Request: fold
Amino acid sequence: MRPQSIISDVTPSQTALSQTALTPSTTSQESLPPLLPLLAAQLPHYVTAHIHAHPYLLTEGDTLRLPFLMPSAPLGTVLRLNRASMLGSRDYTLRGNPWVNEGWFVCRARVVGVETEPLRVVEKTKRRQRRVKKAKNKMRFTILRVTEVGVIVPENGTEAEAG
Reply:
């Protein structure tokens, strides 16, 4: 008996399966694009995007606080997040090995601000010394808002966006 979490061919009776995964390891690269319309038809979509090797589970409208400052991305810059390990909806999941093909999805985020944490002062001392050195640290973070998450469905050799 085949587990319900993995499918290779889709028939009308299988479209009602819950928690169905479309994995490249079980389906060939040629048979995967015909399965994309099932994923594209079901909204909303989510994506597990990787930024500097850290995974973030994102949907449209989410606010993401990155644990670092992006100095080359000023306010209002739109970023395309093209590293994703997982793409899905409520009933379907597309897992990459290790990444999902970036031609099959779109994930865009806008830089909406920069936050700073309060100034931290750490006192550094050495044994048998009266001098106390004060190390000051004030981290800055980039704030992103996810503006678009969708599945791209190829139609007769041209790519059209769905979602």
About this structure: Residues 80 and 108 are 5 Å apart (CA to CA).
